[in-house]
Design goal:
The structure holds three protein chains of three kinds. Chain A has helices at about 1-5, 10-25, 70-80, 110-115, 130-140, 145-160, 160-165, 180-190, 210-220, 235-240, 260-265, 270-275, and strands at about 30-40, 45-55, 60-65, 90-95, 100, 115-120, 195-200, 225-230, 245-250, 250-255. By secondary structure, chain A is an alpha/beta fold. Chain A has one domain (about 55-80, about 105-275): Rossmann fold. In chain A, the strands form two sheets. Chain A has a six-stranded mixed sheet, with helices on both faces. Chain A has a four-stranded antiparallel sheet with strand order 2-1-4-5, with helices on one face. The longest helix of chain A has 17 residues, at about 10-25. The two termini of chain A are about 15 Å apart. The relative contact order of chain A is 0.18. The model of chain A is unreliable at about 1-5 (pLDDT under 50). By secondary structure, chain B is mainly alpha-helical. Chain B is about 75% helix and about 0% strand. A two-stranded antiparallel sheet of chain B has the order 1-2. The longest helix of chain B has about 45 residues, at about 20-65. Chain C folds into two domains: about 1-50; about 55-295, MetI-like (MetI-like fold, Orthogonal Bundle). By secondary structure, chain C is mainly α. Chain C contains eleven helices and no strands. Chains in contact: A-B, A-C, B-C. At the B-C interface, helix 2, helix 4, helix 5, helix 6 and helix 7 of B face helix 1, helix 3, helix 4, helix 5 and helix 6 of C. Bound molecules: adenosine-5'-triphosphate and magnesium ion. Magnesium ion binds near residues 71, 72 and 200 of chain A. Magnesium ion (MG) binds next to helix 3 of chain A. Chain A: This is Phosphate import ATP-binding protein PstB. Chain A: It holds the Pfam family ABC_tran. Chain A: It comes from Cerasibacillus quisquiliarum. Chain A: InterPro entries: AAA+_ATPase, ABC_transporter-like_ATP-bd, ABC_transporter-like_CS, P-loop_NTPase, PstB-like. Chain A: Keywords: ATP-binding, Nucleotide-binding, Transport.
Chain lengths: ~280, ~325, ~290
């Protein structure tokens, strides 16, 4: 990968990047998550330091960085899942659509209904495929069978898995392959129609073929959702994301359009990491 | 399908349901409190036990001196001139416990060694459930067994054996606690890291040498804990001794005679419908308190030893 | 000159191997010992008792005449006892386990409750009997009815039920709960819909095993004062009652007076063991059928 990139003449890269920047300035998408000076501690451990990041609508934002740099922590802060760890303490501001997510009047459950999450390991519930999808709507009080049927079909179609499972909706979800399970989990997330989908290394437990399917799906989903994806796979980040943030030791080293990050990073550490020189 | 073809908007539906949610949220807030109250039942049980035993024991010691109770070798609650020495009962309890441990400790330990060091996986998988069955047999059945089978059998060997005696229930109690010692000791031995075994085996040690020189020393505190727990279990065991050892309050070392344990005394007194308020009635609590303290100390000690054992790896 | 004399080592080695083999045989015999006793016990009980089991025995009333005696009363008593013990111990056992595993913060309070439960598990059953007699039978003036016995037994098996439920809840992987929280579910919704259903097989297995403990226990009921008299069949939890182990107890005690009572005791033991076997098999089936799939 590094070889392929160096093959492009430096001047050419610069020109392309400039065009790119100009284009994006015209059509900057609306900001859904606005993070300002976010700090987070696990007990004494300072896991996130002064994070400033904007997540935009209808875009895929990739978060890359070496293991333990705080990617998952940041992602879980966005839907406040990180608070499941009792020792966590945060300072700073995260605004979701202009409102602080730490505001007392906003309940975490409400936030999480609008900000969905897909996990590293496929984690369907030990229930039927149908019940997995219907779970979210049901806990939010939707009980009408016909509406649920419709939501289930729509979500499964949305995750491009409908055709594979439509004849076995009432079978246990554990009968599905790993890749299918992960798309089922994405469908489960779609069922409550969130605005943002957070994905923590969603393909790291999948084989290449299932990975491509999920990537394809992510590209489709970004038409309707803001997507934040953590990945260790550089090619994946460059293939599917619009913006990339490079984390290191709990800090954002660099955050920019993906092509800028990959072709013309300003920070030496970013370049080193992308070219596999450390991490 | 629904009649109108409007697409479903889930988030809209969800926000419509919000009203009914508020009631649910109040409920949600109450749950930890409800669960805490439920959890406190176990604490109240302990308080209940200690309070009942303690308050009635104090009543008892208003009528009988502490010194007489703990040093008296005569227990005659029903005589004209009642005597309330607890030593005969302690004697009976300790004797039956010692007999039980003489049976259970070696056999249980050897069983544990066999299962952990010698047996193949298949044998282990067959034997462990069988031992669990042995552990799951109600004690009343063991009592029956001691009284109707072991005692007559022992009479052939020891002609002077009385129909109720301390030996037979002691042995049967030992058999009853074999699985306990075996399984707890086996757990301790199995958690000795394999690397330690391999080190010795690589030097040409036999399995027996590995067991006695490596595994047992390493698992020592776990084994001790299993013995202590077994002792505590034997001290608290009731039905076997009640049935097979009778109710003579002998202060003796003669195993062929009937001896009464603390537990059997409690059974005798409660079965006899002692009137509440009488000295006999209160003596029940003093004995139970003694029993409770004995077993509690044993259990605390066993857990202390076992915890130390865990720290070793 | 060599420090290790090969011949000497060889000789010693042979000796050590022989000792090893002998030890192995002794250890094996020890292991078998318990099982042999188990075999004798079961054989004795069956050969003595099986001839006495028939329809009249199973459906008859207690009687001083061994030929006429039946144990329906004791069977019904055991069932009624379970009607109290099963729901009470499940409710408090699972509730406590949920509190300790999912709500209580790590700290002094939690470890205090946990230590307390561990200590309760080691308290002799007869002490629970005294508690039950003092509190339920006398202080609350219930008398020796099913409810009093059932509550006593519930307290007795509560510690083991709690610990088994805690293990079952702990075995539910975190990621299932996370998935539910991630969809905006509240804590209780997650517990009720995801964690408890996933833990249910483990909880049930543990509960059944503790119930079988309660079915076989005698000492607490003796202390509570279950009558040896011929009482009518219990029809509710407020009736006086007797249970299978109590019946075995009285018949064994009196077997020195009337020889046939020993056979009746054997026959009752067979029934008791069959009930326990049935329960344990159920528990094992549940455990195997719902073996973790996540
Ligand atoms: N529950 C926790 N308690 C204490 N420290 C934690 C906890 N979770 C994470 N950390 C620490 O916070 C830092 C960031 O962890 P995080 O999981 O966010 O890393 P990551 O970038 O997602 O790593 P990976 O690529 O391996 O998933 C790490 O140093 C980690 O040890
Ligand atoms: Mg991570």
């Amino acid at each position: 990968m590094a070889g392929a990139m160096t093959a492009i003449p430096q001047a050419e890269v610069k020109k392309r990047a400039n065009i790119e920047v100009l284009r994006t300035l015209e059509q900057e998408k609306e900001v859904v998550f606005d993070t300002q000076n976010l700090n987070l501690w696990y007990g004494e451990k300072h896991a996130l330091r002064d994070i400033n990041l904007d997540i935009h609508e209808e875009e895929v934002t990739a978060i890359i960085g070496p293991s333990g740099c705080g990617k998952s922590t940041y992602l879980k802060t966005l839907n406040r899942m990180v608070e499941l760890v009792p020792s966590v303490r945060t300072t700073g501001v995260i605004q979701y659509k202009g409102k602080s997510i730490f505001d007392k009047s906003l309940r975490v459950e409400e936030l999480r209904t609008q900000v969905g999450m897909v996990f590293q390991k496929p984690n369907p519930f030990p229930k039927s495929i149908y019940e997995n999808i219907a779970y979210g709507p049901k806990i939010h009080g939707i009980r009408n069978k016909m509406i649920l049927d419709e939501i289930v079909e729509k979500s499964l179609r949305g995750a491009y898995i409908w055709d594979e499972v439509k004849d076995r909706l009432h079978d246990n979800a554990y009968g599905l392959s790993g890749g299918q399970q992960q798309r089922l989990c994405i469908a489960r997330c779609l069922a409550i129609e969130p605005d943002v989908i957070l994905m923590d290394e969603p393909t790291s437990a999948l084989d290449p073929k299932s990975t491509l399917k999920v990537e394809e799906l992510i590209r489709e989903l970004k038409k309707d959702y803001a997507i934040v994806i953590v990945t260790h796979n550089m090619q994946q980040a460059s293939r599917i994301s619009d913006r990339t943030a490079f984390f290191l030791d709990g800090e954002v080293v660099e955050y920019d359009r993906t092509d800028v990050i990959f072709n013309e990073p300003t920070d030496q550490r970013t370049e080193d990491y992308i070219n596999g020189r450390f991490g | 399908m629904r009649t109108n073809n409007e697409p479903v908007h889930v988030q809209e539906l969800i926000s419509k349901k919000k009203q009914s949610k508020n009631l649910f949220l109040k409920f949600e807030k109450a749950i930890p409190i409800i669960l805490f109250l439920i959890a406190s039942v176990s604490v109240f049980t302990t308080i209940g036990i200690i309070y009942t035993l303690f308050s009635e024991t104090i009543e008892f010691f208003k009528q009988v001196s502490v010194v007489e109770f703990f040093t008296g070798t005569v227990l005659k609650p029903l005589s004209q001139d009642p005597k309330f020495g607890v030593l005969p009962l302690i004697m009976g309890t300790l004797t039956s416990t010692v007999i039980a441990m003489l049976v259970a400790a070696p056999i249980g330990l050897m069983t544990a060694i066999y299962l952990s060091e010698f047996a193949s996986e298949r044998i282990r998988k067959t034997f462990k459930p069988l031992l669990e069955i042995l552990a799951g047999i109600p004690t009343i059945v063991y009592g029956f067994f001691a009284f109707t089978f072991v005692t007559p059998l022992l009479k052939h060997v020891i002609p002077g054996l009385e129909t109720t005696n301390i030996l037979s229930p002691g042995i049967v109690m030992g058999i009853m606690i074999i699985p306990m010692i075996a399984s707890l000791s086996e757990d301790a031995m199995s958690s000795v890291p394999n690397a330690m075994r391999e080190g010795a085996l690589a030097l040409g040690a036999t399995k027996l040498e590995v067991a006695t020189r490596v595994v047992i020393p390493a698992a020592f505190s776990g084994i001790v804990a299993s013995f202590v727990l077994a002792i505590s279990r034997a001290i608290g065991e009731t039905m076997i001794v009640t049935i097979a050892s009778g109710s003579s309050k002998n202060f003796t070392f003669d195993l062929t005679q009937s001896m009464q344990t603390m537990t059997a005394y409690i059974v005798e007194v409660t079965g006899g419908d002692a009137p509440a308020g009488s000295t006999i009635y209160y003596s029940l609590y003093a004995v139970a308190m003694t029993l409770f303290v004995f077993t509690l100390l044993m259990n605390l000690f066993a857990r202390y030893v076992a915890r130390k054992f865990k720290e070793e790896y | 000159m060599k420090y290790v004399d090969a011949v000497q080592v060889q000789k010693r080695m042979n000796f050590r191997l022989i000792v090893n083999t002998i030890a192995k045989i002794i250890f094996f015999l020890s292991t078998v010992f318990g099982l042999v006793v188990l075999g004798i016990l079961i054989y004795r009980v069956f050969s003595d008792g099986i001839g006495w089991i028939n329809m009249d025995f199973l459906t008859g009333k207690l009687s001083t005449d061994p030929e006429k005696a039946g144990i329906l009363g004791a069977i019904l008593g055991t069932l009624w006892l379970m009607v109290v013990v099963a729901p009470v111990t499940m409710f408090f056992g699972v509730g406590t386990a949920i509190y300790l595993e999912l709500y209580a913060k790590k700290g002094k309070l939690r470890s205090f409750i946990q230590t307390n439960i561990a200590n309760l598990a080691g308290v002799p059953s007869i002490v629970y009997g005294i508690l039950g007699m003092t509190v339920f039978v006398r202080a609350l003036d219930m008398g020796n009815i099913v409810l009093a016995g059932g509550l006593t037994m519930s307290l007795l098996i509560l510690p083991i039920t709690i610990v088994a439920s805690q293990e079952a809840i702990r075995a539910v992987p975190n990621h299932l709960g996370e998935a539910s929280y991630g969809l905006g579910a509240t804590k209780w919704q997650t517990i009720k819909n995801i964690i408890l259903p996933a833990a249910l097989p483990g909880i049930l297995t543990g509960a059944i095993l503790s119930l079988s403990r309660a079915i076989g226990e005698t000492a607490p009921l003796v202390v509570i004062g279950i009558p040896a008299l011929l009482i009518p069949f219990p029809g509710s939890i407020f009736d006086k009652f007797t249970v299978l182990p109590m019946q075995i107890y009285y018949w064994t005690l009196d077997s020195s007076l009337v020889e046939e009572y020993a056979y009746l005791a054997s026959a009752t033991i067979i029934i008791l063991l069959l009930v326990l076997l049935l329960l344990n098999t159920t528990a094992i089936i549940i455990r195997n059928k719902f073996q973790k799939r996540y």
